[in-house]
Amino acid sequence: MLFQPPVPEAYLRLPAAELHERIAAAKAELGARLTILGHHYQRDDVIRYADFTGDSLKLAQLSMSRPEADFIVFCGVHFMAEGADILARPGQQVLLPDLGAGCSMADMAGIEDVEECWDALRSLCPSSTLVPMTYVNSAASLKALVGHNDGCCCTSGNADSVIGWALNRAAGDHDGCRDKLVFFPDQHLGRNTCYKLGVPLDQMVIWDPTQELGGNSPEALRRARVVLWKGHCSVHTRMTTEHVRQVRAEYPGVKVIVHPECPFDTVQAADLAGSTEFIIKHIKEAEPGTIWAVGTEIHLVQRLARQHPEQTIVSLDDCRCQCATMFRISPQHLAWMLEELVAGRVHNRITVDQETAHWARKSLDRMLELSPMPTAAPAPRRQQELVPGA
Ligand code: 13P
Ligand code: SF4
Fold it and tell me: Is the per-residue pLDDT at 378 higher than 60?
């Protein structure tokens, strides 16, 4: 985790109304020089200031749609800001309001461990096609390894098409060793998507970086079609089949919709699974009166419940777990960062070194080619739309 110096005391004591006025004033002062991006898991008192909201895929695409902005303030987590820096035009600066906003899943795939895995698979299967793929929830160094080895990034919003592309490339058998998709770092997104695309569970193995050969025999690795890194999201792994059973008992007719970072059995027990944008779309388009149990981060679930009073919306997870690192971005951090920008001082810039960015960009560009924006980039939200719960 990067070190975030404390925000000056004065910001911590500001009443909410004054904080709001000052953020709005700084935003107005910076005008088109500033774009604020907000992930759906941000708290309401932060996302209300986002010019654009979205899931990881949409935000990556939108980050490139504002070349006139000198500053992109990313209300999300570190890997998202790194991704935006890699995709940014030269001179554009990407800032993260709290440097402590990391992602525990991304941290589960340290680059030395990943290199060890990659080298071991390469020497076990020297003639096979190995396609590396990383979920965007990963460090730039891992994205660079993937780009260097002709692989691709994916998000939960495009996993079906991008993993489908990789499985088509890795469909042969050479010297008794299967071609493989090697998927980092979320075993659940990898397993759920590969299964959906027709790969049986017994053709997938887990790579545990704490074990020799990831805890597998050489034979099992040669036979495998998919190697899944042993990583997970601490929020979504909480969602179990027992939650699904309970909610179905309590709300007859309920539709269970979950994020594909949830474990396999939970996704199988649910009615629908998809990215945060997918979840929002399905709830928005549902018949009024539909009952939903939503298996994802609590801030999004609560916002959906408020925005759709015509539906009944409950959290699938009874503990209503939040993403602790997304929550680190606060209005106090935002006010401090924006007022400092107005004063000409830049804090918390996220940069990726040129060599890493070059290779990481290859993996991101390929992903973006495989998942074009469905429509033209939307216009930023107007100031009067920046209201709580929006
Ligand atoms: P999406 O934004 O792709 O839905 O993913 C959720 C997530 O965990 C982001 O960290
Ligand atoms: Fe990482 Fe999970 Fe938080 Fe997303 S919700 S940022 S995957 S810890």
Answer: yes
Which DSSP symbol is given to 218?
Answer: H
Q: Which pLDDT does position 387 carry in this prediction?
A: 45
Q: Which domains does the chain have, with CATH numbers?
A: 9-102+325-352 (3.40.50.10800), 106-229 (3.40.50), 236-315 (3.40.50.10800)
How far apart are the C-alpha atoms of 103 and 105, rounded to whole Å? Answer: 5
Q: 103 C-alpha to center of ligand 2: Å?
A: 5
Burial pattern 186-207, b for ≥16 Cβ within 10 A else e, equals: bbbbbbbbbbebebeeeebbbb
> Residues 258-270: pLDDT tens digits?
999 999 999 999 9
Tell me the C-alpha distance between 92 and 37, whole Å.
14
The model's confidence at residue 171, banded by pLDDT at 50, 70 and 90, is: very high
Q: What are the pLDDT digits (tens) for 112-145?
A: 999 999 999 999 999 999 999 999 999 999 999 9
What separation in Å is there between the alpha carbon of 76 and the centre of ligand 1?
A: 10
Tokens standing for residue 259 = 């994020």
- Determine the distance separating the centroid of ligand 1 and the alpha carbon of 55, expressed in angstroms: 6
Residue to substitute in 238, 326, 328, 329 for testing ligand 2 pocket (most ligand atoms within 8 angstroms of CB): 326
Q: Give the model's pLDDT for residue 388.
A: 42
| Ligand 1 atom at shortest distance from the alpha carbon of 277 | 4
* Residue from 75, 275, 297, 301 to probe ligand 1 pocket by mutation (most atoms less than 8 Å from CB): 275
138 lines ligand 2 (CB under 6 A): no
Burial class (CB in 10 A: 0-12, 13-18, 19+), 330: buried
Backbone CA torsion sign across 317, 318, 319, 324: positive
List the residue whose alpha carbon is closest to atom 6 of ligand 2. Answer: 103
Cα(76) to centroid(ligand 2), Å: 10
pTM, two decimal places: 0.95
pLDDT score recorded for residue 3: 82
H or E stretch including 39? strand 34-39
* Three-state SS at 93: strand
Q: Residues with Cβ within 6 A of ligand 1?
A: 55-56, 103, 137, 155-157, 233, 261, 275-276
